[in-house]
Amino acid sequence: MQKIIVVLLILFLSQIGYAAEKQMTITGKVDAGTMMSNIVTSEGKSYAFVSDSKVGNKIFKACKVDDLCMVTGLVENDEIIQSVISVKKMTKAYLIIPATEKRDDKNIKERKRSELNGVIQLKHNPAGRYYGLVSGKKEYTLVYVWAINDNDLSDKLEMLADGRAKVTVKGTLRIWNDGSASFDNSAPIEIYK
Fold it and tell me: pLDDT tens for residues 146-166?
């Protein structure tokens, strides 16, 4: 009877652990320790992994201590990296779109710090031409052409759009009441390629 209870308890606990895992993409600096190491995001969130493990070996093969690293894997309880799907060493931000003045948007449901992968494209709507990030089936406005005062910024955005390069964009999303979203220009937007 005790064996049956122990087996059922193990099965129950393994199901709880499985349910708490989710696939995430994390970009941050590698911080190494003897037993445990971390990926620390620019927001200060830390994701731990065992230094001397399959996960640790994959991460340290691609990234060294203090490198900016993008890790896609299964994360348990939103804090422990259990397995790695891919690892990529990132360079410093290729481009930073500076913050502009904050607007009072009454129809915004929430603002959320986000990191999205996709392709930058030059688009057009009634407000004018703009650069947008196409990520999966969704599109997010980055910046309107008329709001760009820096020729270097304009040239780099145009090169990214022309080359259809895959990028990672970090910034704050404004999520509207209708479910649509765009990047909030009241905070800097970082683009990595």
Answer: 888 888 888 999 999 998 888
Q: What is the pLDDT of residues 90-136, one digit of tens each?
A: 877 788 888 876 666 777 888 888 888 899 999 999 989 999 999 98
Domain residue ranges in the chain: 2-90, 95-192
Contact predicate 36/46, CB 8 Å: no
Per the DSSP assignment, residues forming a β-bridge with 90 are 68
What is the C-alpha to C-alpha distance for residues 171 and 111, in angstroms, rounded to an integer?
10
Locate 15 and state its tokens: 């199901």
- For the domain spanning 95-192, the CATH number is 2.40.50
pTM of the model: 0.59
Q: Establish whether domains 2-90 and 95-192 are of one fold.
A: yes
Task: Evaluate whether 172 touches 113 at the Cβ level (below 8 Å).
Answer: yes
CATH code 2.40.128 for 2-90: no
- Angstrom distance (rounded) from CA 58 to CA 81: 12
Q: What is the pLDDT of residue 6?
A: 36
11-52: per-residue pLDDT in tens?
444 455 454 788 988 888 899 888 999 998 877 889 999 999
3 phi, psi to nearest 5 deg: -65, -40
Strands 189-192 and 95-97: antiparallel
